[in-house]
Amino acid sequence: MFRNIFKKNSSTKNSARTVYVGLSGGVDSAVSAALLKDTGYNVVGCFIKTWAPDGYPCPAEDDKRQSMRVAAHLRIPWIEIDAEDAYKNNVAQYLLNEYKAGRTPNGDIFCNTTVKFGTFYDVAMAHGADYIATGHYAMTSPPTPLLKLEEGFQQTNKGVLYKGIDITKDQTYFLWKVPKEKLAKTLFPVGNIPKNKVRELAKKYKLPNAERPDSQGVCFLGPIDMKQYLKDMLKPVSGNVLDTSGNIIGTHDGAILYTTGERHGFNITAPHTKPYFVMCKNANNNTITVHESLNMPVNQNKIYANQINNLTNESLQNKEMNAVFRYHGEEYKIKLDPDNKIVFLNQDTILVAEGQSVVFYDGNQCLGGGIISYSK
Fold first, then answer.
1. How far apart are CA 68 and CA 46, in angstroms?
2. Structural domain includes residue 172
3. Which of 11, 34, 67, 374 is the 20 to 30 Å CA partner of 320?
4. Does residue 111 have an active-site annotation?
5. What is the average pLDDT across 32-50?
6. What angle do the packed helices 195-204 and 27-39 form, to 10 degrees?
7. CATH label of the domain that carries residue 320
């Protein structure tokens, strides 16, 4: 499952605490490892081996090389953890099943839950780790004053989840489903540092990937976009575009390819002067319904939060809190009723798709989240 290319760090300061760091090959995780080593942790660098569909380019080979280079530069042990089965069975298959059913899933959330906080976490703990660490922009303790670069990693772990101090990079939206007992064993070393300062730290530590651009796209697809993946795997067929009265006004390439709010990729044959937006889709009938205004609610009278993961010690029901339905999206004041129906406090409704994640916040603290459904 893994192999080691260096002997363990011989530092005695904090040497009783061992942390396995997910070294993805990117700058954020590399700086995380450097900060933890500087603070005296016994650091083990881990590269998580991903899966790619047959015939697709493997995006992980360069990532792996970069990960090994960082570990060599920092003189820390390096291991490779095989997570191919977790990616294929828990992430890729989940995405296909959800899209096929007409829902709109978020692969990054299930990648975090089943791979980084699944396979990686389990291997680390099985081999004696006290903590795992990743390069996510999040925190497990309340924000502290901005660190001076020379002070290193000083975040403590309170077993809760807070937004990263750099709001433009905050990634708590993707972490809501991680069990809180695993968060209590997780460190996020760059969560209290703005991105530009992380780049400065990378140069300070002379990391070999200090100038490497941030990665984009779904973790196991690399340069291949999700629509192309769905076309290759599910072979969707063309269907009808409907207006909100049920009239046929155009064609599309397959209902499963579209998500709520989208305004491109379908053909409107009826006369029109404004762009149309996808309001909803019907996978069984292979139709999408569109309208010229996003404010036209369709099947949005009731939306529920299912599969809730509560990151607090209190009930989330009847609690006034903020809800976010898209990564870096707008916050809405809501409450959950006893059936976990989402009650909007400042407006009637918004347009969201089944399968999307809703994440709950109280200020900067992430309270947990759930999966959007139109029924209980």
1. 9
2. yes
3. 374
4. yes
5. 95
6. 60
7. 2.40.30.10
DSSP 3-state assignment of 284? coil
Six token digits for residue 354: 């089944």
Range of the domain at 241: 236-291
| Separation between Cα atoms, residue 214 and residue 317, nearest integer Å | 38
Catalytic residue among 46, 58, 111, 366: 111
- Do both 197 and 242 map to the same domain? no
What is the per-residue pLDDT for 298?
A: 53
Residue, of 213 and 10, whose pLDDT is higher: 213
Same domain, 257 and 124: no
Provide the number of structural domains found in the chain: 3
Q: Return d(Cα 376, Cα 373) in angstroms, integer.
A: 7
Residue 218 lies in a domain: no
Q: Are strands 131-133 and 186-187 parallel, antiparallel or unpaired?
A: parallel
Distance CA 138, CA 155 (A): 11
Quote the distance between the C-alpha of residue 9 and its chain's center. Answer: 31
Q: Does the pLDDT of residue 41 top 90, yes or no?
A: yes
Per-residue pLDDT at 153 exceeds 70? no
CB 3, CB 80: distance < 8 Å: yes
Secondary structure (3-state) at 270: coil
The answer on 146 and 23 residing in a single domain is yes
Same domain, 161 and 260: no
Per-residue pLDDT tens for 349-361?
678 899 999 999 9
pLDDT in tens, 200-211: 999 999 999 998
Q: Is 259 exposed, middle or buried (0-12, 13-18, 19+ CB in 10 A)?
A: middle
pTM of the entire structure?
0.89
Strands 18-22 and 131-133 turn out to be parallel
Comparison of pLDDT for 348 and 33, the residue scoring more: 33
Direct distance between the N- and C-terminal alpha carbons of the chain, in angstroms, rounded to an integer: 41
pLDDT band at 115 (very low <50, low <70, confident <90, very high): very high
